[in-house]
Task: structure prediction
Amino acid sequence: MHRSYNSYNPVASKLLQKRWDENRFDKHRRHVDIARPEIDSSPPVTFMHLHLKLKKLQLEEERLATIERDNRILLEKMSNTMRTKGQLDNKNDVVFKSLSRGRREREMLRIAKENMNMLKRIHNKKPAISTEKLDKDWKQTLKLMDNISAFPEDWYKKEKSQSNPSFKYKKPLSKISSSRQEKSDEPATDSNDYDNDDFENEDK
Result:
């Protein structure tokens, strides 16, 4: 069988050369099998914790458990309300405690007391300006103005009433009161006492 093997180079023994060539080829094949590629074309490593998120599943289970518990409590309340007449659960028996409550109450009472005292002082205080005195002074001022003025106080209203007959002249209240007082003070006179000269002056 060694006669059928032909070597590329001249050899002394074809049988030994065949064994050597086979050993060398087997060694080459082993090197080829264990050789690593220059470019890594293998798929990336798959991490299970990135695809299967256990923490997210745990949170989801806890949320579903909370929802289930709330639903069960609500169902129990509804069934209790349907079996009975139902009760109000809006009572709040919590007592609010404050360390400064007493001090704040005393401060509020003190302020209220001071306000009441101030109000009493304001009511009991006599006014510094007398309205009666002001009215009296104003009447005296009007009287002095009437004495020193060259024309009567309501001369322009008389002119308007003469130019416009529809204009109704109204006498001031001070004039009305003074005229009434003068009439009451004057003695009663007969209509025949007036002479013709007085009527002529009034027409003018």
